[in-house]
Amino acid sequence: MEKIKILVAHPGKQHSLKLAEAISKNDKFDVTYATTVYDKNSSIMMKLVKLVSSKNNKERANARKSNCLNENKVKMFYPFLGLIRIFLAHYDKKQYYFQKATCLLGNIFGKKVAKYAIKNDIDVIISFDTFSKACFEYLDNHSRKKIVKIMDASAANLAYQKKIFEEDMKKTPNFAEKLKEEIAFTLDSNRQNYYIEEAQRADYIIAASTFSKRSYVSVGVPEDAIFVCPYGIECSEYMYEKKKNRNLLTFTFMGGTRQAKGLSYVLEAFSNLNSINSNTKLNIVGKDNLSNDIKEKYSENIDYMGQQLHSRIPEILMQTDIVLFPSLSDGFGFAAAEGMAAGCPVIASENSGIADLIINQVNGFVIPVHSSKALYDKMLWFINHKDKLGEMSESACSLIKQMTWEKYDKSISDALEKVIMS
CA–CA separation, 16 vs 37, rounded Å? Predict the structure, then answer.
């Protein structure tokens, strides 16, 4: 039987390698992976990049590779532009030029992979949200053969998110300008139409959570065209230690200083909590671009740790009791899942994919979005119920261990077989 030819295309990385690996494990499929930057043994560019890179950037470069994929099945398009985009992601503070590069790359990379798909008789193409419109449009207009178009949605639809962000700016005026800077790209009216059109041009969508699925239904995608395939977690990377009833309670927020991740609610809730119980600590992990005046206001018992290498996260989580995840919108929530793998109960907003995995008072709490009071109440609950921490710690770790990449592989394989059968 002839294999189904599937092309997975992403100009960045995200979980695209995991998706390609999942497909490669099914003997019915022949997968090709297309990207911009990949650590091929034959790539002179990558050898030069590693030669001039810092230790941290070398580690990031080494991660752009899969041991499961045959290098002959990996195609690199526009590698130099891909490198520029990676550089801008780390060093463009306002992300203006990064977003410009993202738009440009989305268009030219999308058309390039569409042309490749037509030329190489691809049966199914899987592209990713914010990078799919040009690809799908070109296929609709130029492919004589019906190529099934699937969009892997790593986040909730951005047109849906816009409403959430606009509501937040009304509720937190002191952080409104900061949020505007973070998501200016999302608020642009032309981009809104883009996000809706790329979703509607897809034949099917793969979402990581029911929250993401809900967002795509809201822009006109039929429910039965959306497959929910939650990601896996490498639990072996995290050192599980049952949380103990100790005097100092440590909360960790891994959203950096981003309002889109719920920063203001974390700062306000913790400040109120710390005023009545000083035996608490808050770690803020991630890119730090918070103004000094806000830091001065929210400083007591708060450690702004800045961006950390992923290899350092397990160590931080070992010293954490509870992970805070009050995100305004998050398609899955790897940071929260990593916390659970380390035995940390999670307080997450209803607008996060990780909410699918949380059972109230068993392994954490799900709270309403935009509410520092709801977050404060649950943080206070942990202070008043420290004796429950060990049991909830075990439950968090036990549940997340079930979220394996093998389970993700099967859900992807099952979804693709349904697509092909239909």
Answer: 12
